[in-house]
Amino acid sequence: MQKKTVAFSKASANLFFHILTQCNLSCSHCYINPDQHGSQTLSIDTIRRWLGMFAQKASKTNLIFLGGEPTLHKDLSVAVKEARRLQYNSITIDTNGFLFHNILDRLTPDDVDFISFSLDGATSATNDAIRGRGSYDAVISGLGRAREKGFACSMIYTVSDKNLHELSRMPDLVASLDIERFFIQVIGMRGKSAGAKKAGQVSKDLWLSVIPQVAKTIAETGVIVTYPKVFLDLDEPFECAGIVADNYFVFPNGRVYRCPLCEDFPLHSFTIENHTLVPAPPVNETHLFGLTIAEGCVMNKIIQPGNLDYLADGTLSHKIACCMLKQEIRS
Ligand code: SF4
Ligand code: SF4
Predict the structure, then answer these.
(1) Cβ–Cβ under 8 Å, residues 53 and 27
(2) 74-116 pLDDT per residue, tens
(3) Which protein residue's CA is at the shortest distance from atom 6 of ligand 2?
(4) Which atom of ligand 2 has the smallest separation from the CA of 285?
(5) Which residue from 116, 65, 55 is spatially nearest to 89, judged by alpha carbons?
(6) Would the pTM count as exceeding 0.85?
(7) Could you count the other beta carbons within 10 Å of the beta carbon of residue 291?
(8) Which of 3, 188, 248, 292 is the most exposed place for a label (fewest CB within 10 A)?
(9) Tens-digit pLDDT profile for residues 166-181
(10) Which residue has a Cα nearest atom 8 of ligand 2?
(11) Three-class SS of residue 30?
(12) Does the Cβ of 23 fall within 6 Å of ligand 1?
């Protein structure tokens, strides 16, 4: 069993491309915020031009198509093929499972590296309470159809206090699904989660008592498991991906962020204007990345300080890692 922290690197880049914000679901923890991200659907011409804008480093860039629900875009298959033509290093579609516009018939397994399905419970009762009625069945059926056609598939499970209890049931389900990768995410207090307070993050003790063991159990079946580190011991080094990595979160209103925790605010680093990446004026997220605080991530302390803990004498019990810092475990 190999376990490693996935180091940040500027040698490769990740492009998280939200091609629309429209969605058929209304998940209680959705981070899409139309006030900040817009409500437009990018035309295929604009998608092509924006893909071209980031294509200088395409061979070192992992591209993830997102929404909203990206399969609601009628030209997603064209966009994927264009990304392949531009030789992006890897191409992933993140989906809620409904797979609109016959996307599985319009792409081949050679066009896309992964189709990644979001499921937030081992049962339909728990998953559908978070993601909406019918969403569990859509994922199980969509994933089955994708596997039948030979697409490589992965799964994302976003952990909150509403579904942590079912994570230990996921190894059996995962074993039946024939997926290659399993991603555990931590719910962020942004988008709907920030306002409605419908779900919360879990404590350090709970996280550490469940996540690493479940990850190990799933990895023993041959699936590669990735989960966020979240908590750092006080003597562990802290790094901000905004400084030491190369991530771009692109939204259809032209905002480009380097940090997902900033996405609820007009703090984006760039704006796309006339198909060109233009640095945003001060103050923006880049001015936060260099701030050094004992608690680790500055944005975490601003938007979700509930995951910090102080001892009776006021000193910190742990730091919070960059939300992009991951642990990877494989057999
Ligand atoms: S499927 Fe994704 S985009 Fe749609 S509501 Fe759920 S979290 Fe939001
Ligand atoms: S989550 Fe925190 S540490 Fe990571 S990029 Fe954002 S501000 Fe930096």
Answers:
(1) no
(2) 999 999 999 999 999 999 999 999 999 999 999 999 999 999 9
(3) 259
(4) 7
(5) 55
(6) yes
(7) 11
(8) 292
(9) 999 999 999 999 999 9
(10) 240
(11) coil
(12) yes
Correct CATH for 13-238+322-329 of 3.40.50.300, 3.20.20.70, 3.40.50.720, 3.40.1160.10: 3.20.20.70
The answer on pLDDT for 33 being more than 60 is: yes
Q: Which amino acid is at 92?
A: T
pLDDT computed for residue 190 by the predictor: 81
Q: Point out the ligand 2 atom lying closest to the alpha carbon of residue 262.
A: 6
Q: What confidence tens digit (pLDDT) does each residue in 208-241 have? A: 999 999 999 999 999 999 999 999 999 999 999 9
Q: What's the gap in Å between 131 CA and the centre of ligand 1?
A: 8
Residue 63, sorted as left (phi over 0), alpha (psi -120 to 50) or beta, turns out to be: beta
Ligand located closest to 304 CA? 2
pLDDT score at 191: 82
Residue 30 CB–ligand 1 contact under 6 Å: yes
Return the residue whose CA atom lies nearest to atom 4 of ligand 2: 322
Residue 221: Cβ within 10 Å count: 14
Give residue for tokens 């298959």: 77
- Section 315-319 average pLDDT: 95
Atom in ligand 1 nearest the alpha carbon of residue 66:
3
Q: Token digits for 113?
A: 């590296």
**Of all helices (H) and strands (E), which one includes residue 132?**
none
- The C-alpha atoms of residue 175 and residue 111 are separated, in whole angstroms, by 25
Taking the CA of 23 as reference, the closest ligand is 1
Domain ranges of the chain: 13-238+322-329
